[in-house]
Amino acid sequence: MTRTVLLTGFQPFGGEQVNPSWQAVSALHGTRIAGHRVVARELPVAFGASLKALRAALRDMRPALVICVGQAGGRAQLSLERVAINIDDARIPDNTGQQPVDVPVVAEGPAAYFSTLPVKAMRHALSAAGFPAEVSQTAGTYVCNHVFYGLMHALRRQRIVRAGFIHIPYSPAQASMHPGTPSVAVETVTEALRLAVKVALNTRMDARLAAGAEH
Ligand code: PCA
Fold first, then answer.
1. Is 20 near ligand 1, meaning CB less than 6 Å away?
2. Which of 143, 147, 170 most suits a substitution to test ligand 1, by most atoms within 8 Å of the C-beta?
3. Which class does domain 4-202 fall in?
4. Interval 68-104: pLDDT, tens
5. Entry pTM
6. Is the Cβ atom of 45 under 6 angstroms away from ligand 1?
7. Where are the domains of the chain?
């Protein structure tokens, strides 16, 4: 049986016309990577509804690997997120007007979950192939962290299903509206994600490489 890789991107938010996370993952929809079928889904930028849609997709597809992708305007590299924390603290309202402040994603849930992706091996492979990539120590406290935490919580008893989150920079079209901010072409992000999926599927044990930060 062909196993599925689930990739998610987000709808536009914060006044943007597009979200490069959806542009990049939708370009991989229907392709095959390392013998797996890729399915892409778009999530709303909304606390609660985003996770409901994600949980439905997990139930329907029973994927072997899940990578959720979101836009992080201002970042210069693909950020392989290490950890999801159990807090919603929104600086701006979501697309439905909700703005939770210091509310847990899951009441009584653990403080945090680590990504189960081999983030070090992925960063190494991406850098070696010329893609800008880093391991990030925070996915923020907005809808992306909310989805990342909810994803890891939903899969907490299915450790065999690898899952995690990648933040991506603005696209050049977006960055032109925010002078001075870095960007990466959507096509480049798409190719980087294709490689990231391949490495995640082919790496059993993560590499022991330094990719920490002092701050
Ligand atoms: N980025 C936001 C939410 C949706 C997205 O693409 C975030 O980083 O939380």
1. no
2. 143
3. alpha beta
4. 999 999 999 999 999 999 999 999 999 999 999 999 9
5. 0.98
6. yes
7. 4-202
